[in-house]
Amino acid sequence: MRSEEFRTRRAAHNVRRHCAGTKFFHHPIAGTLELNYQVLGLEEDPGHTLTVYPATPGSPSEEALQLLATWRRRKSSRATPARSSSSP
Questions:
Q1: pTM for this entry
Q2: Are 55 and 34 in contact (CB under 8 A)?
């Protein structure tokens, strides 16, 4: 901030919100995922937003997300202990 040039360039930087676009994520199992994103304002809670990341239908990223969802469901069903019918 001591540099006049830096302050001038920083002040001129026009930062805009990006409410939609594409992002790439690297997942250790699924690999690279290309996901669209859209930021949605919450009418009932001003100042808060919800960002959704859907994959393009039929894309390799959608297939990878479906694989991860299936894998997660199987993993959670094995990790859930059986409930006891005895009361405390």
A1: 0.61
A2: yes
Q: Could you list the mean pLDDT of each consecutive 10-residue stretch along the chain, which spans 88 residues?
A: 77 74 94 95 90 96 94 76 54
Strand 31-41 to 49-52 pairing: antiparallel
With vertex at residue 58, the alpha carbon angle to CA 33 and CA 40, rounded to the nearest 5 degrees, is 60
- Burial (CB < 10 A; 0-12, 13-18, 19+), residue 61, is buried
Reading the block at residue 25, the tokens are: 């994520």
Q: By the 8 A CB rule, do 39 and 23 touch?
A: no
What's the rounded Cα separation, in Å, for the pair 87 and 74? 29
